[in-house]
Target: Powdery mildew resistance protein, RPW8
Amino acid sequence: MALETGVIELMEAVALEIKRTPKFTTLLKRLDKTLTNIQPILHESGRLSKVLDRPEPETEMFIIYLGNGKKLVLECSMIKCWNVYEKFDHANKLIRLDHELLRFFQVELQDNMTLSLRTLKEVYDLGDKMDRVLSTVTNRAGGFSSSFGVPELPDFIVGLDAHLQELKRILLNVADQVLTVSAPGGCGKTTLAKMLCHDNEIKGIFGDNIFYITVSRTTSLKTIVQKIFVHHLHVKNCEFQSDEDAKNQLENMISQMGSEKILLVLDDVWAESQSIIQALKFPIPGYKILVTSRSLFTIASTYKLGLLNDEDARTLFYHSAFPCDGDRINVPEDLIIKMVKSCKGFPLALKAVGASLRGQGEVEWRTTLKKWSEGQSIFDSNSELLLSLRASVDALVESLPIAHECFLDMGSFPEDEKIAASALMDLWIELYNLDKEGMYTIEFLLELSSRNLLNLIVASKNASELEGYCNEHYVTQHDLLRDLAIHLSSQDPIPQRKRLLIEIHANDIPAWWIKQTQQPISARLLSITTDETFSSDWYDLKAPKVEVLVLNTQGKKYALPHFIKTMNELKALNVTSYGIYPSELHELTSISHLSNLKRMRLEHVSLSPSIQFIYELKNLQKLSFIMCEIGNALESCTVDSPSMSPNLMEFEMANALDSGSVDSSPMPPNLTELEIDGCYDLKQAPASICYLVHLKKLSIINCHELDTLPKALGSLLNLEILRVHSCTRLAKLPESIGNLRNLMYLDISDCLSINSLPYQIGELNGLRVFKMSGCHGLEELPASVTKLSLLEDVICDEETSYLWRYYESDLRDTKINVVEDDRLANFMKIVG
Model:
C-alpha cells in the first residue's frame, strides 16, 4: 500500500544519508528512531486501520509529504558545508519532518508517550504560566476579562512602550504573514502581545477579529482551531475529525470573512509546535499571525525582545519591592542599587526578587546579597524564577538529552564573557563521544540558540563553515541562564556531581576541597575559575574520572595545577586568560604524561621560551593557540633552510619519517588539527609543522605579522583544509602547495599582500572550495586554475570575481560566489 511504501522509502533514504554524509547525523538518527517506532504500526493491520481512519484527502496529502520528505533527506549530502545559513535552514526542515511524522501517527504512538508526558506536564504547565508572571506574580487586581479572548493587561507595565511601537510597525508593514516575538521565559513576551492586542490602532484595523490563543506544549492543532471556533467565532458544537479537517474548516471560515483583516495570536508556542504555525498559514490577504515563543522559528520573521535598561529595571524593582509609599524607609539606597544590578535587567528576576524582599528590613537585604556573593544561587530563594526558566531546559530532556547536557556545561565559563564556539565543540566532542571532526556538533549550538538559551554570534558574514569548522562563531549567555546551569549542575553532593564548577577568589580555597583527603570526586567535567590575585598555590585534588578540564584565570602569572598529572582520563584541556594582558603560563610539565589528552586549547596566554612538554603528548589530535604571545617558543623548532629547495626539503622529511626520527619532532606527531589564531607576534609559521603527516586541518589566521609559510608545506599530504585568512603581511603561498592533492578547502581571504598565486595551484586536484575575498593585491590568476576539475565554489569579492570570469568557460562546473562586504550581517549572503 502507498502509505507503507512511502514510509519504507523514507527509511531507506535516511539510512543512505547517514552513511553518505555526517553533516546532519544527529537529526537523521532522530528521524530514523521515529520511523523505527512507526514501522510496527505498518505491519499490524488493526493499528494501521486506526491511523487510516481519517479523511482520504489527508492520507493522500501525507503520502505526498512522505515523498517530499524523502527528497529533503536525499538533499542532505548536497548542502554546501561552508554555507551556515543553508545548513541551519535544512536542519529545521528535518526537524519539522520529524514532528509531522509524529503528529500523523500520534494516535497510536501516544500510548507509549503518555507516561512521560504526564510526568512532564506539570512542569510545562508551570512554564506556560510563569512566562506571564509579570501580570500575576503580585496577585494584584486585573487578570483575564473572561475565560477566553484577549486577556486584560497587568496593572503595571514598564519598559515595553518602545518595543510596542516597533512590533506594531513590523506587523503592519512587513510582508511576512507570521511574526514571532522571541525571548527567554519571563522577559515579557506575553505582556507585549497583550499590549499589541489592546492598542487602539491595532483594534481599529482588526476590530473584533483578534483571536488570542494560549498554546501549551501538548496543544494540538485541532484543539487550537476548536478554541477559535467556539470562543471567538461563537460556533457551538464544533467537532473535527482530524487536524487536517480542522485546518480546512478554519481556512474556509476565514475565507468567507471576505475583506476583513484578521490577527491570530498564538501565545507561548514551544519549539516542537512549529508545524502548527505552518499549518495555520493560509494565502488569505489581511490575515496575520503573531507568535510569542522562547524559541526562534525559520518560517517567521522574528522580533527579539531585549532586557530592561537600568532606569526601567529600577522602576520595575521599586514597584515590586515597595508597592506602597514609605515601604523603603529602612532600606538604604546602595542596597537597592546592588539588588537591581544583580538582576541584570531580567524582568522576571526583578519582579520575583523584589516581591521576596517586600517588607523585609535592612538585615534581610544584606543577608541576601551576602549569600549571593558567597556563591548561593538566586534560585535558592526564588522558586517562581527557577520554575519559569527551568521549563525551557527541561523540555530538552525528552527530545534532545545531549543538548540538555550541553546547556549545563555552559556554567564552566566566566560570566559576561564571549565563548568561542570551537571551544565548546571541543568540550562536547569528548564528553559525549560526538564526531571527532566537529561536523554536526554545531547543531547543538543551533538548537540552544533557537530556544534562546544562549546567543550564537557570527563575527562576520564571511565566517565560513566547512565540515563543522566555526572559528568565527561566538556564544554569549545571560547571567541568569548561566546561573541556572550552575544551579542545576550543583544539586548532587560534591563527590557525586557529573560536572564540578569551582570559583576561587584570591586564595580562598573552598572548605570542602581543603578537607578532602581520601574521597575522590567523580566529575567528568571540572572547571576552575580564579581571579587576578590567585597565587597558583594549589591544594591536591583527587579527580581520576575528569575527561574535560577548563581553567579560567585573570592573573598575570598562572601555574597549571600539579594534580593534572594524575588525571589519566583527561581528554580535553582548555586554559583561558580573561585578563587585560596574556597570562604567563607555567608548569607545563604537569601535562607531559597525559596519554589520553586529545584536545588542548590555550587562549590569551604567554608561552614560555620552551613548550616542549606539549610536544610530548603523543596522542594529541588538536592543538589551538588563540591570541597567544608566542615569542620565540616555536622558533627553536625551525628546520627550514633558505637554501634548500622544496623538493629536497620534502625528500629529507620523508626520509626522517621512514627512519622513525619523527618521534623527535618538536610537534605532537599525531596532530590532525593545528589552529593558530590572533597570535600577533608570530612572524614565521614553524617549519616543524611539515612533519605532521596526519594533519588534516591547518588554520593560521589573523596573524598580521606573519610573512612566510614553510617552503615544505607540500609535505602535508593528508591536509584537507588550509586557512590563512587575514594574514595581511603574507606575500605568497609556497610552490610546494601543489603537492596537497587531498586539499578540499583553501581560504586566503583578506591576505592583502598576496599579488600572485603559484602556478602549482592548478595541481590541487581535490580542491572544492576556494575562498579569497579581500585579496585586493591580487593582479591575476595563473592559467593553471583551469586544471581545478573538482572546484565547486569560488567565494570572493566583486573585484576578484572578474579574474575568475576570464576562465569561466574552462570551469563550467565552478560557481563564482560574490560575497557582499557587509560585516553586520548575521549570516553570509551569497549572490550572483
Notes: Residues 492-629 form a domain with the Leucine-rich repeat, LRR (right-handed beta-alpha superhelix) fold (CATH 3.80.10). The mean pLDDT is 79. The radius of gyration is 30 Å.
